[in-house]
């Protein structure tokens, strides 16, 4: 979406424990035109060596969908906080 600031924050982490880093890309000014403005989104690109980027659709993380939430203003890997064997991420929404 034009003006969504896609790529404002980017981080890599092995989300699915396949030894390949996956990519999280934020778009904090993403707008859902039916509900408001600047809700933000984070797009999750799972690294699959058999898949080409031309046919890939990322998973989408939505925040609260509140106007001005700017979900995805920052994205960071914070380690395995809950000790379940997977690295956790934090997403900022100021």
UniProtKB/TrEMBL annotation:
Subcellular locations according to the entry: Membrane
* Any single GO BP term: cell-matrix adhesion
Mind telling me which InterPro entries this protein's record contains?
A: FG-GAP (IPR013517), Int_alpha_beta-p (IPR013519), Integrin_alpha (IPR000413), Integrin_alpha_N (IPR028994)
Membrane topology per record: Single-pass type I membrane protein
- Alphabetically list the UniProt keywords: Cell adhesion, Glycoprotein, Integrin, Receptor, Repeat, Signal
FG-GAP repeat copies, ranges: 1-54, 59-94
Cellular component annotations (GO), alphabetically ordered: external side of plasma membrane; integrin complex
State any single GO MF term.
integrin binding
Which Pfam families does the entry mention?
FG-GAP
Family according to the record: Belongs to the integrin alpha chain family.
Per its record, how is this protein called by name?
Answer: Integrin alpha-2 domain-containing protein
Species in which this protein is naturally found = Ciona savignyi (Pacific transparent sea squirt)
């Amino acid at each position: 979406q034009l003006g969504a600031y896609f790529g404002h924050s980017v981080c890599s982490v092995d989300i699915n424990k396949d030894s390949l880093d996956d990519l999280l890309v934020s778009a904090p000014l993403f707008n859902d035109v039916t509900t408001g403005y600047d809700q933000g989104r984070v797009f999750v690109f799972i690294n699959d060596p058999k898949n080409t980027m031309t046919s890939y659709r990322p998973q989408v993380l939505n925040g609260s969908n509140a106007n001005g939430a700017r979900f995805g203003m920052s994205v960071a890997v914070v380690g395995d906080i809950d000790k379940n064997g997977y690295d956790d991420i934090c997403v900022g929404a100021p």
